[in-house]
Amino acid sequence: MSKIVGIGACVFDTLYNIPTYPTEDTKMRATGSKAAGGGPVATGLVAAQKLGVDTAYIGVLSDDNGGAFLKKDFEKYGVNTSLIEVKSGYRSFASVLWLCADSATRTCVFDKGDLPPLALNESMKKAIADAEILMVDGNEMEAAVDAASYARAHGTKVLYDCGGLYAGVEKLLANTDIMIPSEEFALGHTGKSTAEEAAKALYERYSPEIVVITQGKRGGICYDGKTVTPYPIYPATVVDSNGSGDVFHGAFAAAVVKGYDYLKCCHFSSAVSALKCTGVGARESVPSFARVKEYMEENNYEL
Q: Half-sphere exposure (CA, 13 Å, Cβ side) for 222?
């Protein structure tokens, strides 16, 4: 039984390391390139798996080169792939990313492909009911809403990585226990001018157990309906920031399964995300649980 299951984007990424952003209509030689698996929930599941929690991906992949790579990549990291439906004749969700050295930022251009939407079957529903956490990211919206409603009816917590202001997002937010939006999402969805105001508005409107707003290089805040508490970003020499938010969400899910309170989950996830940024690749750079614990102790925080 997988303790964390996920429904969301699974993306075939091609990463290019570049020294600086090129001028339009010119050529630039990359310092490196590689293929990698991506997507908020998909990468989050890999992060949780590498941190010692059993995970499974629920979704639809193509049998093209991108889809074959994505399935093998899950298997490489130990994520259960038995709930993936493989379809023939479709184009995979794919992206190209520039990882810029001088600004430590990344720029992404993506093609969502043309795969048919996910429809939950009985095996998928059973896996959701048996799990401790269902992770969603707003992709596969109809299936995600159905799965979230089913999860809550069977005692499975729903963790929502709120990154995109998709149509119908209110239905998913209304079925969320652990709400983790980016600051951009939180301000955009609520119309508030500060993260603190947005966290309170989201909590009052949707009644989750916790709202955690991520603020990039400033760390973030969590709100439990009573107190707004900040959490820090942990120090790191950033080599590759791509996927750091996805890893944060997966680490948070793993921390919940490990029994930590929500503020401790914030610290743990921030530390995992920081360590991930010290290496190239969103998935291969996720540290072990033992390394995270050691790193947090080095920074005067004990799990």
A: 19
Instruction: Provide the 10 A C-beta neighbour count for residue 135.
Output: 31
Provide the residue ranges of all domains of the chain, joining segments of one domain with +. 4-19+33-298
Length of the chain: 303
Contact 238, 277 (CB under 8 A): yes
Distance separating alpha carbons of residues 197 and 200, to the nearest angstrom:
5
Answering whether pTM is above 0.90, one says yes
Task: Check if CATH label 3.40.1190.20 holds for domain 4-19+33-298.
Answer: yes
Please give the helix or strand (H or E) that residue 210 lies within, else none.
strand 210-214
DSSP 8-class letter at 55: E
Q: Are the C-beta atoms of 227 and 213 separated by less than 8 Å?
A: no
Q: One-letter amino acid identity for 248? A: F
SS3 (DSSP) at 8:
coil
3-state secondary structure (DSSP) of residue 28:
coil
- According to DSSP, residue 229 is labeled E
| 68-83 pLDDT per residue, tens | 999 999 999 999 999 9
Residue 39 in tokens: 């997507």
Q: How many CB atoms lie within 10 A of CB 294?
A: 11
What are the residue ranges of helices labelled H in the chain? 40-50, 65-77, 122-130, 141-153, 169-173, 183-190, 195-206, 244-257, 262-276, 289-298
Mean pLDDT of the chain: 95
Query: Residue 210 corresponds to which amino acid?
Result: I
CA 138/CA 39 separation, integer angstroms: 11
Max distance between CA atoms of the chain, in angstroms, equals 55
Q: What is the dihedral of CA 61, 289, 243, 131, to 10 degrees?
A: 40
pLDDT at 261: 98
Q: Which amino acid is at 74?
A: F
What interhelical angle do 65-77 and 40-50 show, nearest 10? 30
Return the SS3 of 251.
helix
